[in-house]
Design brief:
Jelly Rolls, six-stranded antiparallel beta sheet, alpha+beta, about 20% strand, four-stranded antiparallel beta sheet
């Protein structure tokens, strides 16, 4: 396939996303787990807990930071997030005339596992753990499948029958390409990743509790040292650092969305010391709570 053909595909995908996103933001679609994202200007860094997903940028550019690693990608690459990870995302290239346009398809590990079994794809034994993000070149077959999935939004009557088939093709393309090592580990229930995922879920549900690595290790049935080692290999940070990010992100949400003051929000997420909360909040978000929330409110009103 020629470079000219690929460029035409990218232009068509961008046009399809633009047609279905009239304003900036994240837009749900009639296709299950398919979301479209539009931004008409570069955005401020946003701290989020990213769910397992495939992200395809049709136009513009984005930067994602996981722990100390920076991933910069545009229409030439696609990003796969195989496990829940706390990232900092920022649209770096977007204008009114050429907005940032992205397709996000949330992934179902069970669906990936069933497809792997059916296609007899396997995971090499003793494969090293993969970090929680995978960035690789966009392939023409994957781009073609994404375009066909987007076209279904123009014929809603076809979605129920054809969308699952195209999603299945997309998953097959991912499992057969450079993303396969991390996805195959997730799909086949790698015991180490299963333990990490259980630890993540435990931390999400108990982030306000005092951190006890022994308690979490007992919950996921591995030793504390093994949990710490595997967790850091995949997520890029320790379980304690992960819990801190969950706490601070939730406190930010409480202050921004519910109007809570910093002292109450910090206590609600598990901080006994207001000064420690302010100190760690500033370290993560670059400003103390009051200044950060004022800046966020100002930018949303602009």
């Amino acid at each position: 396939m020629t470079a000219e053909t690929v460029q035409k595909q990218q232009l068509e995908l961008a046009a399809l996303i633009a047609q279905n996103t009239n304003v900036d933001g994240i837009h749900a679609t009639a296709i299950a787990r398919l979301f479209l994202i539009r931004a008409s200007q570069p955005t401020a860094p946003l701290h989020i807990l990213h769910k397992p997903a495939l992200c395809i940028v049709a136009q513009g550019q984005k930067q994602v930071i996981l722990a100390d690693r920076i991933y910069l990608y545009g229409s030439e690459q696609c990003l796969v997030v195989p496990i829940n990870v706390p990232i900092v995302g920022q649209v770096t290239e977007a204008t009114l005339a050429a907005p940032y346009l992205c397709l996000r398809l949330d992934l179902d590990p069970g669906e990936l596992g069933a497809l792997m079994l059916e296609t007899e794809l396997d995971v090499p034994k003793h494969q090293p753990l993969q970090q929680g993000l995978s960035l690789s070149p966009m392939t023409p077959p994957l781009l073609d499948a994404a375009i066909r999935l987007m076209r279904l939004l123009e014929t809603p009557q076809d979605i129920a029958i054809l969308a699952p088939l195209i999603v299945r093709e997309i998953l097959y393309r991912l499992l057969s390409a450079e993303h396969s090592p991390c996805l195959r580990q997730i799909a086949m229930g790698d015991r180490r990743l299963h333990a990490i995922n259980r630890a993540i879920n435990w931390l999400k549900n108990n982030y306000s509790k005092p951190f006890e690595i022994n308690e979490i290790a007992r919950e996921v049935c591995i030793s504390p040292s093994t949990l710490h080692h595997h967790f850091k290999a995949v997520i890029g940070m320790s379980p304690l650092q992960y819990q801190k990010q969950l706490r601070l992100q939730e406190a930010r949400r409480l202050m921004l969305g519910d109007g809570m003051n910093a002292a109450i929000a910090g206590h609600q997420v598990g901080y006994e010391s207001p000064s420690q909360f302010t100190r760690e909040y500033r370290r993560l978000f670059g400003a103390p709570p009051s200044c950060d929330i004022a800046r966020l409110k100002s930018s949303s009103e602009a």
